[in-house]
Structure formats: structure tokens, C-alpha cells
Design goal:
Blueprint: E1 4-9, H1 15-31, E2 34-39, E3 50-52, E4 56-63, H2 74-79, E5 81-83, E6 98-105, H3 113-123, E7 127-135, H4 151-174, E8 210-211, H5 221-225, H6 248-252, E9 258-259, H7 263-276, E10 284-286
Parallel strand pairs: 1-2, 1-4, 3-5, 4-6, 6-7
Antiparallel strand pairs: 7-10, 8-9
Length: about 290
């Protein structure tokens, strides 16, 4: 039986953490289990390897970037979590180590991110017993998906948790090997190409956040919370490292001093708001 729920996530702007925590809360209640939190958003946490046992249930979450998992973090999804039983699943269903894959996305599409996360977990020896894609506020926009995940989303996530618990209890009672989970997408597909307002490719790979020096109070929060450690702690106006456009610095700055002014980036943001503001996707749940 499940004795510990492990909730693990990469969540620069906090929405993936909310979704994972909601699901973990429901499952913790269903199993009367303990809970462990693994937040690998910051670089210092991504050198650790976590060994998961058959008495654990791993819930792991990531935002969708350009239709897939964040490419700079992908190695950690593949190598940061390992199964305690090196021999994997036996024919009678013993030694099953279950995991739940969760991705969030900013209202456009989760494309292939969920398929990629499921494949990464399966390659590491996990039985992915369930998966879901949760719409959230888009990190680039103040309005696109604002307020998501909302109360209705969280209710659906919690209900999904109860259904996952039923499936695991049935699996244990029957002592049967698991069946492969079918999720949409192609784990090996290329990244989505961002489009501008003219619906042509918008290239902003080198775009980095700027600082309104009149608003900045040099608290250093942006440097401390940057998932790539890209912002200089000595001069937060400088970004010598690789920026993945996660917008943690923009969203977390208490003085709203961080912003992007790259023209291609702004064109892509405008395209998203023009074409996807009227969409209202529901969480997609796979069991």
C-alpha cells in the first residue's frame, strides 16, 4: 500500500506547484499517507537524485514550454528520480513503483509535453498509472488564463486524485501487472515554433529580462529565484546566464521592475492573447 506521497515539481511561477499540491493533497488523504515535497525549481536542488520505492507514489509536474518539457531541465526529469527496485516490475505485478505525470500549460496547448514526461518516467522504470494536463495562467501574459487553476480546476484535480487512489488499490488487490497508459502526443516531436502577430515564426531565443532601474530596490529576489541562476546577484540589471523566458523574475518582483521588451517576444505575446483569450480549456485527465 502507498505509505508516502512524493510531490515533485519544476514551477518557476508557482502554478505547477499549486496543481501538484492539490493532487498530492487528495491522494495523501485517500491513503492516510505521509507527504514529501521536492521542489527542484532552483539550480541547487537539481544535483540531487531521489530514490523512489514501491511504497511511494511519485507525483511529478512541469510547465509546458514550446509544446514540450523545458529543454534545460529535461535531463533532471530523466535522471533525478530513480526506482529503488533495480529489477523493475515482476510478471505478477510486484515491485511496481507508480508515478503520476502532470503538466501545466498557458491555454494554447500542452502539445507533446505530457507524452514526453510519461516517456521519461517509463524509461526510468516507473509505472505511470495516471497523467493530466492542467490549464494555467500563461507566464507571458497578465490576462491569458488569469486565475487558473481556479476553484473548479482544483475540484477536478482532487476528484482525479480519488480516482487514481481507486485504481492503485485495485491494482494492489489484484496483484496484476499494469497496463500501459495512453496519452496524446509524441515524446520525440520537435518543439513548437512560436509565432508572431503576422503568424510567421517569432525568434526571441536571445531575449532577456530588462530592469526598470527607477522601480528596482535591489532586493535581489529575482537573482535568488531565477531557475537558471542567470541573473547576477551583484547587479540584477545584468543577465549573463541562459534565460529560459520562464518569467519568474517578472512575476515575483515586488516592485514590478522586471520586463521584456524584445519586439519578437512582444509580437508572440500579442498573438497568444489575440488567438487564445477566448479559449477555456478543461483539465485533461488520463487514467
Amino acid at each position: 500500500m502507498v505509505k508516502k506521497i512524493i510531490k515533485a515539481y519544476f514551477s518557476p511561477t508557482g502554478t505547477t506547484r499549486v496543481a501538484v499540491s492539490s493532487l498530492a493533497g487528495a491522494l495523501t488523504t485517500e491513503f492516510s499517507a505521509s507527504q514529501e515535497e521536492i521542489d527542484f525549481t532552483l539550480p541547487a536542488e537539481r544535483w540531487k537524485t531521489h530514490k523512489i520505492s514501491s511504497e511511494d507514489l511519485l507525483i511529478i509536474g512541469s510547465p509546458t514550454y514550446a509544446g514540450k518539457l523545458p529543454n534545460r531541465i529535461l535531463p533532471y526529469f530523466k535522471e533525478g528520480f530513480t526506482c529503488e527496485s533495480p529489477d523493475g516490475i515482476n510478471g505478477n505485478g510486484s515491485n511496481i513503483i507508480n508515478a503520476v505525470a502532470l503538466v501545466t500549460y498557458g491555454h494554447r496547448s500542452f502539445d507533446n509535453s505530457l507524452a514526453e514526461l510519461v516517456q521519461s518516467l517509463q524509461d526510468s522504470g516507473f509505472n505511470v498509472i495516471a497523467a493530466c494536463a492542467i490549464p494555467t495562467r500563461h507566464p507571458f501574459s497578465e490576462t491569458l488564463g488569469a486565475g487558473r487553476p481556479d476553484d473548479d480546476d482544483l475540484r477536478q484535480i482532487e476528484y482525479f486524485g480519488r480516482q487514481i487512489a481507486k485504481k492503485i488499490k485495485k491494482q494492489i488487490a489484484n496483484n496484476a501487472p499494469p497496463l500501459a497508459l495512453d496519452v496524446p502526443g509524441d515524446a520525440d516531436a520537435p518543439y513548437y515554433t512560436p509565432l508572431g502577430q503576422d503568424l510567421q515564426p517569432a525568434v526571441f531565443l536571445k531575449a532577456k529580462p530588462k530592469t526598470n532601474i527607477d522601480l528596482c530596490v535591489h532586493c535581489g529576489l529575482c537573482a535568488r529565484r531565477c531557475p537558471m541562476g542567470a541573473i547576477s546577484p551583484d547587479d540584477v540589471t545584468q543577465v549573463p546566464g541562459t534565460c529560459i523566458k520562464c518569467h519568474a523574475c517578472v512575476r515575483l518582483c515586488p516592485k514590478e521592475a522586471k520586463y521584456f521588451d524584445d519586439s519578437a517576444f512582444l509580437s508572440h505575446k500579442a498573438m497568444l492573447e489575440e488567438h487564445y483569450s477566448d479559449t477555456n480549456p478543461d483539465p485533461e485527465l488520463f487514467l
